[in-house]
Amino acid sequence: MRTQVGIVGGGPAGLILSHLLHLRGIESVIVEFRSRERLESEVRAGVLEQGTVDLLRETGVGERMDREGAVHEGIELRFNRQGHRIPLSDLAGGRIMLYGQHEVVKDLISARLDADAQILFEAEAVSLHDLESQKPTIRYRKDNEDHELRCDFVAGCDGYHGVCRSSIPDGARTEYERKYPFGWFGILAEAPRSSEELIYTLHERGFALISTRSPEIQRMYFQCDPEDDAENWSDEQIWEELQTRTETHDGWALNEGPIFEKGIVGMRSFIVEPMQYGRLYLAGDAAHIVTPTGAKGMNLAVRDVRTLVEALQAWYKKGQSDLLENYTNTCLRRAWKAQRFSWWMTSMLHRYPDDEGFQHNLQLAELEYVTSSRAAATSLAENYVGVAFDE
Ligand code: DHB
Questions:
Q1: pTM of the predicted model, to two decimals?
Q2: Cys-Cys link to 49, which of 54, 186, 221, 299 (CB 3.0-4.6 A)?
Q3: Distance (Å, rounded) from C-alpha 180 to C-alpha 170?
Q4: 363-388 pLDDT, tens digit each
Q5: Gap from CA of 129 to ligand 1 centroid (Å)
């Protein structure tokens, strides 16, 4: 099989890439090892920056998001049992949309299939070949048979564990990584909203986050041991932990309800350099992982993809290669800025196991500063809504 752009990975990065290329008359094929059902049901993050929302809307895949998503104009930082609002829109001029990543994935798959796109589900990319030539190849396995997809370019949108990044030879890539001594315990619960806006809280027992998916479904997280098993926690224990960490002086209480999904995710910061090799271009988690505290992951992937689409368009329509050559430069500068913001939010809002109090008091001082200085709050807001990453 032949195509112009061979895309490894059918998550948000690969799907948006395929969608945008299609709108510009460039053909692509997606090779994705998961089934459509699994892709559409994997629960991930849910905060879309203004720019991501605009892009989905402008390219015709925002209709359900506008109907079912919730627009938020601020977030709350809670510490010392008191809430402080950061008015994102007033400070930075943008808003965020709460809409689950797998809902975005559903909308994109449906739009791509309506346009007769080739998405090969349950097809495992095994290896990449001839990346330094003009005709790179993706070898994949589907239905117990080996196949080859020949293309002009390969887009590596296959996440942290995919084959694309490791196809850049060892000597040609540098990886930067930081691991954290905690993870996030995440739940979905059938309960009414407890707050109109997201709450990020630091408590002596650690971080907690109150988010939402719909008026009936709530998403919450709390800092935990990354080696723990979600099954060790009963619903009662989970609610008790969340109630304790979010408690306020004025008797605020979290609405509880049946928990129908729970899991633990580890936390790491990661960046690979360069993000390209020969005719291979990495986008999203294949190139960088940010801690979830800044809600940047998917938004950063969308920015990579936009940069790649502009570069591919310039190459196909005008024979220009400078944007492609600059891809790593453009994306990496931005990725480090997002990395910094995510690391900063993480450092400010989590208890570190070896901290004997010094760091916790610094964190409280930082939170007081951020919530009382307009300049500091604006800095948070610009990063959170994403204008800090605009070119
Ligand atoms: C959600 C996830 C995040 O990582 C975050 O910072 C805020 C919200 C969520 O899943 O709703």
A1: 0.97
A2: 299
A3: 25
A4: 999 999 999 999 999 999 999 999 99
A5: 37
